[in-house]
Amino acid sequence: MNDKLTRWNRVKEVCLSCSACPLASRRTNVVFGEGVLEAPVMFVGEGPGEQEDLQGRPFVGPAGQLLDRMLAAIDLSREKNAIICNIVKCRPPGNRVPTPEEGEKCLPFLRAQVDIVRPRIIVCLGATAVRHIIGPEARITRTRGQWAERKGFWITSTYHPAALLRDTSRKAEAWSDMQSIRAKLVELGLATPASSSR
Ligand code: URA
Q1: What domains appear along the chain, each with residue ranges and CATH number?
Q2: Does 40 contact ligand 1 (Cβ within 6 A)?
Q3: Per residue in 136-154, pLDDT tens?
Q4: Chain-centre distance for alpha carbon 107
Q5: Would the CB of 30 count as within 6 Å of ligand 1?
Q6: Alpha helices (H) in the chain, listed in sequence order
């Protein structure tokens, strides 16, 4: 087993038995994260929904299907070259937004995941990821499509796919954000310009 996988599995094992916040008591499954440990890009959502809780996998419900299509449009996938995690690993009841305390309790797991994968790019999906990763005052409407380099990571954000399902008028901006991610991958020498498709 390679070193990254060993470390990933070790953190995952701890996460699977975590009871640090009240979300633990109502979960069916912990949703640790999924994808390629060598991935150049990590996408970070908010927290598991109903389907994710049932299956123990991130972004497998309707928002996840849209996310997979958004990734495919820029030649990314969780099977091949991307990794998908969440701010909180247990489903908030009724899909409510996790409280700042729940997010803080869970963040050491995300930090460990970032430390193991060392992605070149981190993409915040939606307001919760933006607040926890970019800063408590940051707002998705201002940060989306923007880039900041921090501690060797290129960080950007776009709308959460569930928000795009609710409000399709944001899709053009999300498309532009995905193109910007593609362009950053090309700029960093991690993708070739020709391999993008819609
Ligand atoms: N929404 C999220 O933020 N994460 C998931 O895993 C699924 C839906």
Answers
A1: 2-17+30-188 (3.40.470.10)
A2: no
A3: 999 999 999 999 999 999 9
A4: 13
A5: no
A6: 3-16, 50-55, 62-73, 100-117, 127-133, 140-143, 161-166, 171-187
